[in-house]
Structures are given as C-alpha cells and as structure tokens.
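Re: beginner question about structure tokens

> Can someone show what the tokenized structure looks like for a real chain? I only ever see the sequence side.

Sure, here's an example I had lying around. Input first:
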Amino acid sequence: MNHFVVTVARGFGSGGKVIAAKVAEQINANCYENRILTLASLLSGMDEHYFEQANERLSGVRIAQQLSVIPKTVTPKPNAEKFAADDMLFDYQAQIIRRLANTETCVIVGKCADHVLRNYDNVVSVYIEAPRAFCVKRITDRMGIPEEEAHKLIEKTDKYRADYYKYYTGGNYWTNPVNYDLTLNSERVGVDNCVKVILDYINLKFGTHYEMKEQV
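And the corresponding structure tokens:
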C-alpha cells in the first residue's frame, strides 16, 4: 500500500478534529478539513467559461500545493445556520477528495469523505462521538462560551451535519456505524487512546507499522 486516507466524521465537541490532527501527525501526513471547502468554493465560484480550466487545476499533486497555502483553522467551527444544498460546491469537494485519495496519504475531516471514498480500498473511515456533557465542557473550555450556548451550538451543528450527510448520501444517516470501520467514544476511550486505536487499525488493515510517538 503506497498511500491511504483516514476519514473522520465527528459529533461537535467530541474532539474528533483534535484526534484527526493527532493521527495525521503520527503518520506524517496532512490533515484537511475546511481548506477543502475553501478551495472548492473558489473553484465553484468561477464563471462557467472557466470550469474546464478549474478542472485542470484539480489534477495530480497540485491540489496539495493549493491546499497548503490556505490557512488551517484551529478553533471549533459550528454550523448554526440551516443546511442548504449546493450541489456544484459538493461536486468540487468530492473531486478534491478523490484526487487526494489517489495521490497522497492524508486525513480528511468531515465533507462526507467516507461516502465519497466508499469504493476505495485504501481508506479507513472513523466516526468519533461522546456524551453531551463531555462535548459541552470541551466547547465551553475551547470557545469560552456559556453552557447554554454550547448546548445550542451542538444541537444546531449536529443537525446541520446530519442533514448534509443525508442529502449527499441519498438518505443514509450520519451516525450509522455501518458507514465506518471504527466508531469511538472519545470520553470513554480518551483522545490519545482513540489515536492509538486508529493507528492500530491502520497497521492491521494495511500492514504498516505506525506507533504512537511520545508527546513532549
């Protein structure tokens, strides 16, 4: 196996994004989330006359180069608005995700990546969830907001993600464990142990030899 992709779906506040970033660090790979959305937005916003040129920009390893110049986001990004479909934007996201899966080892957070890559053999798909109290505490600590607001953000963001997943997968539901190789409770397992479990599964599935590096 020359390269592989880890997709991470997660409940808001579960620590899934942190776990994804830690997995990427352990396997010396890029972790992609909102940078994919940003690049897809740029491409889908182009005039129809330039679509062919935009598609050419999605070829080969140039995707990684374009994504690398887009700033990473480190703070939680809730989706407080209602879900509104944008098929063209999703199509560009899917193209970017597939090209990444064909060219490099990486971790992709969200974006229905597990569904987009469902027919790929070089994919490990993971879903991270945790009890509400655990998620609320993480959000209040990281965002500095009251508990009441954290509860509302969890409800709205998870509703948005569920609606997004249902629409673009043709009716599947986001929390269905059958969609994933692994479903982990980050409170019970612990963030670092979730990383270890994912690395162990990567080793099992692909015959690699990744180990958890010591944290300094």
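Each token stands for a local structural state, so reading them left to right follows the chain. The chain has one domain: 5-204.
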